[in-house]
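Dear Dr. L.,

I hope this message finds you well. Following up on our conversation about the binding site, I have prepared a predicted three-dimensional model of the protein together with NAP. For your records, I am including the exact sequence and ligand specification that went into the calculation, followed by the structure tokens. Please feel free to forward this to your student if that is useful.
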Amino acid sequence: MAVIIDGKLVAARLREEIRSETEKIKSAGRAPGLAVILVGEDPASQVYVSNKEKACAEVGFYSEKYLLPENTEEKELIALIKRLNSDVNIDGILVQSPVPKHINYENIVDAIDPSKDVDAFSPVNVGRIMIGNYSLAPCTPAGVMELIASTGTDVSGKNCVVIGRSNIVGKPMAMLLMHANGTVTVCHSKTKDLKNITRTADILVSSVGKPKFVTAEMVKPGAIVIDVGMNRDENGKLTGDVVFDEVSKIASFITPVPGGVGPMTITMLLKNTLTARKLH
Ligand code: NAP
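The resulting structure of the complex is given below.
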């Protein structure tokens, strides 16, 4: 039976470290500052933004929240970002996605000063991650690396299989595993014989976005299985990609959904904001 990796616990430990470092930084100057911008009234995004605000308060950060109307023009949003780029109290700027369709998200991310891009989505930061010379790591993959580290496993030399190749999860995930000296295979919807590839994985990361996608027959006995998926099942219940009941019988470690990768993502955002504060 697999050991369940408790993402809430790992996240709480990290937040405590961030809180105590913030106290020291504050007494020597100013608190790390995060600005979160939401355009429109998407209810899920409103929850994410208020969770980020609460998380900032919990660790002692300064935060600003901008709630802009749905019909905000791209140039107005970019003007706000430019103002925040030169605000000395702000170390991190985050524009909650998705943005309304009339706004080009790439232009928005591109407008953020790379040293304040705490999501690490801008082309400059993506390039830095690619060459392995980066300070700000993409939050979800960085959180996965922390979860793997919490098992005491050294990624070096391990066969790592990532299912999914998105810009926010799959691709940066593969890069971080590669920088940790894993031997990495990336799978996607055109991959042939997926099961035969996933069965080679010592570390299997699933970021597909489909419930019940990863079954026991796809998993090598003893593997570490990280489930990034966040899906709703037929009853509206939050569920991952992995069939937890059967895979947990053969894996060595496994993340649950909820309570695995999810709690790490905001924590890594806080960590990036603290890092950005130190850079500034
Ligand atoms: P995405 O952009 O939709 O990417 C999904 C990936 O899965 C794509 O690369 C796709 O391949 C691949 N895929 C789809 N069907 C497949 C199949 N049959 N076999 C193999 N690969 C297949 O999604 P995402 O943004 O990366 O997110 C993935 C999941 O993670 C979602 O459930 C999302 O909600 C969750 N997520 C969770 C967190 C968190 O904090 N826990 C953060 C971000 C995302 P192609 O490229 O060929 O289409």
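In brief: The longest helix spans residues 7-27.

With kind regards,
A. P.
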